[in-house]
Amino acid sequence: MPPFYFIGLMSGTSLDGADGVLAQLDETGHLTVLAHDFVAFEAAFRSELLSLNSSGPDELHRSALAGNQIARHYAEVVAALLQKTGLQASQIKAIGAHGQTVRHRPLEFDADEARHRAAVGYTLQLINPALLAELTHIDVVADFRNRDLAAGGQGAPLVPAFHQGVFAQPGRCVAVLNIGGIANLSVLKADGSVLGWDCGPGNALMDFWCARHTGQAFDRDGNWAMTGQLQPALLRSLASDPFLHKPPPKSTGRDLFNPAWLQEHLALLDDLQPADVQATLCTFTALACSKDLLRHAPEASELVVCGGGALNGELMRQLAAHLPGISVLNSEALGLPPLQVEAAAFAWLAFKNVRRETSSLPSVTGAQGARILGAIYPR
């Protein structure tokens, strides 16, 4: 059988830009990344996306325009990937395009006890997939989360099934931690079962605080955090949030872990030095992830870290310190660089969609059953 070529596109809660991979898949779904590209979002566009995470004036109009802009950025990534590989658009089976999540409120609304109607809530990813298909001349698969919500699930995280295919090791319990703006864990059990959930903030709060006080988009390698001192009172306050103590399935986003949430906690304390707050936020992220892993999968022997947080040396050191019996390693050690993992997952999700195969895991999202995820927008 000839190989199948798919493109996966992802812009995450870090709001830094769009990552894309062009991948080759075989009949079994085994994936090999042939090329990776990244297009950064302009500062003004990042600011607009951040503001659309909460209510504001004329937000429907602004969201529609932002969806168009996401499609254009994605099309730039597609063009670069085709150029790097020498492939033609006609050779790509489909693009898996996640879009930009600006709201995520699953299972919170719509309940009607009198009519025995369960809450569905909503999740909103900004993208114009029809425009992306028009610009690239490739079929686009988008809207991956809503089918799971309709079946009573969280719609997130979507990647544990892909993590199982890439990182699972027979007879061993392996965990995969994706640290984007929000952090999510996948637990690949020795018996082949899979768990997964959002465990709390990843880079979102650290990036916000760093940009506010240093003008830099992120704390490179955690160097600024290392200059500060941990503030135990602030850490206790942050760690008291009820979400962190909920059992899976659970998912979250900037709807909860945002600058206003952080400010509420800071307001309870005397003025703190900015570097001390950054140090505490780094520890908070590491503790939220490590405690959840030890709580729900103490038998894990290995933690594979991907996403931008895998490039934060101080965060990685703290994870290792809080997980002394578990090997903590960057996903690149297993053949898939950390900034390619999520984009590769959406190439794989598109592959599953066009084959009419389910790709959701009820054990992860809490849905009533596995579902085929995504909707196709023909070229």
List the helices and strands and how they pair.
Blueprint lengths: L3 E7 L6 E9 L5 E10 L2 H9 L7 H27 L6 E6 L2 E7 L14 E6 L2 H8 L3 E3 L3 H5 L9 H8 L6 E6 L2 E7 L5 E8 L2 H11 L17 H8 L19 H8 L7 H23 L5 E5 L6 H10 L4 E4 L10 H14 L7 H4 L9 E3 L2
Parallel strand pairs: 1-4, 4-7, 8-11, 11-12
Antiparallel strand pairs: 1-2, 2-3, 5-6, 7-13, 8-9, 9-10
Helix pairs in contact: 2-3, 6-9, 7-9, 9-10
The structure class reads alpha/beta
Distance between the termini: 24 Å
- Percent strand equals 15-25%
Proportion in helices:
25-40%
Instruction: Enumerate how many helices there are, as a single number.
Output: 12
Task: Please tell me what the overall shape is.
Answer: globular
Q: Please, what is the CATH homologous superfamily of the largest domain? A: ATPase, nucleotide binding domain
List the uncertain runs: none
Architecture of the largest domain, CATH level 2?
2-Layer Sandwich
What does this structure look like?
The structure is a single chain. This protein is an alpha/beta fold and 379 residues long. It is built from twelve helices and 13 strands. Strand 1 and strand 2 form a beta hairpin. The relative contact order is 0.17. The mean pLDDT is 96.
How would you sum up this structure in a few lines?
The protein has 379 residues and is α/β, with parallel strands linked by helices. It is 36% helix and 21% strand.
